[in-house]
Amino acid sequence: MRKTLHPFLFVIATLLIVGMACSGGRQPTEAPPSQPVETQPPAGEQATEPPASSPTEAAPTESSPTEEAETPPPTEEPLAEKYFTDEFDNGLANWDYYLTGGGLHDKAKVEIQNEKLVFDLKDADLYTFLYSKNTYDDARVTINVENYGINKSEITLLCRYDEAVGWYSFTVAMNGKYNIAARDQFVKKSYVLFNGATTAIRVGQRNEISVVCQGRTLILYINGEEVRRIEETKYGIEEGKVVLSATTYAVYPINLAVENIQISEP
Predict the structure, then answer these.
(1) Between residues 251 and 263, which one has the greater pLDDT?
(2) Structural domain includes residue 205
(3) How many CB atoms lie within 10 A of CB 193?
(4) Within a 13 Å sphere around the CA of 132, how many CA atoms are in the beta-carbon half?
(5) Are the CB atoms for 222 and 172 separated by under 8 Å?
(6) 144 within domain boundaries
(7) Is 9 in contact with 75 (CB distance < 8 Å)?
(8) 13 found inside a domain
(9) CB 42: neighbour CB atoms within 10 A?
(10) Residue 120 contacts by C-beta under 8 Å, 6 or more apart in sequence?
């Protein structure tokens, strides 16, 4: 596996999920594995079988497992400030970058263009991840993102990413589908906690996506609207890194521009 952004650190089992995405019934996006094992289908394609982003608005009575690749652990290099807003004035200095998947790696570009972080993925089966250098327990993560690609393009935010324990992921597609999932690293499976669809997404426009992990509460906001709140009592993941991810699965090209990312107290 090779690292694509020269200056950035080489990181180390899964989108994800979590990820997600919302392309009809695939599994959530997972963060990459210490040894990439199999990459996941797009979130929204199934977790219980059907995970990620099917437009169903009823949470499954029982979360179901999905197999997925594992993620290499990011390097430990703390930031000067734990909470910050990154407008990418210093490139990707605040993040560790990792690229995996069976697609052509030279078809994946993650770089700063016009003061925005651009994910430009032009092949299937590409998984890109940016890891925070600090760890967090309770946190709010907010991004402002524009989509210049297909409406099925999706972006994933992970909180409390701990390679040994697991993480929570929120995947949002630019067509309004989304999912929230938990990764259990003890059994190496991801579980969709909820998948659905929302009209809060502004198709073809800039969108603000915000996720909160506070105690047992997981919240997804889109453009200031609370889209979903979950009280998660089963997995109990308490602390870890923040991760920003974009993937292609079988849906590409993906072209997403993130204007900024903020990590703050809830």
Answers:
(1) 263
(2) yes
(3) 24
(4) 30
(5) yes
(6) yes
(7) yes
(8) no
(9) 30
(10) 108, 109, 110, 111, 253, 254, 255
138-185 pLDDT per residue, tens: 999 999 999 999 999 999 999 999 999 999 999 999 999 999 999 999
| Total of domains in the chain | 1
Token pair 């697609």 is found at 103
Enter the tokens of residue 59: 């949470």
Residue range 19-38, pLDDT digits in tens: 444 545 455 556 655 433 33
- Domain extent at residue 133: 65-264
Q: At residue 107, what are phi and psi to the nearest 5 degrees?
A: -95, 5
Q: How far apart are CA 153 and CA 155, in angstroms?
A: 7
Provide the CATH number for the domain around residue 229: 2.60.120.560
In a domain, residue 38? The reply is no
Residue 105: phi and psi, rounded to 5, are -65, -25
Token pair recorded at residue 10: 């080489």
Residues in the chain: 266
